[in-house]
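Something for you to look into today, if you have time. Could you write out one complete protein record for me, on any chain you like? Leave the record below and I will have a look.
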Amino acid sequence: MPKEPCWVCGRVVVPSARTDEGAWCDTCRKWALAEPCSRCGITRQITVREEDGSPVCSVCYQREHRGVRPRRKCVDCGEI
């Protein structure tokens, strides 16, 4: 894949996403998608959402589901 400059930070990388503004590097995309977790309050990349739509980070999700992996809706594509 060809490398392009990230429209946010300017680093030349293989884009992880594209928008109307241009290519995004992985780091900038993760920061853009980060939200405060509804459980711990720390702003992180969101892993899942509760039934009511509230965001849950991977640390809180793993803490609750150690060893058990229930099927949840994907944050990006919406599939189970």
Observations:
- The beta strands are 4-5, 12-13, 17-18, 23-24, 35-36, 43-44, 46-49, 55-57.
- Residues 37 and 47 are 10 Å apart (CA to CA).
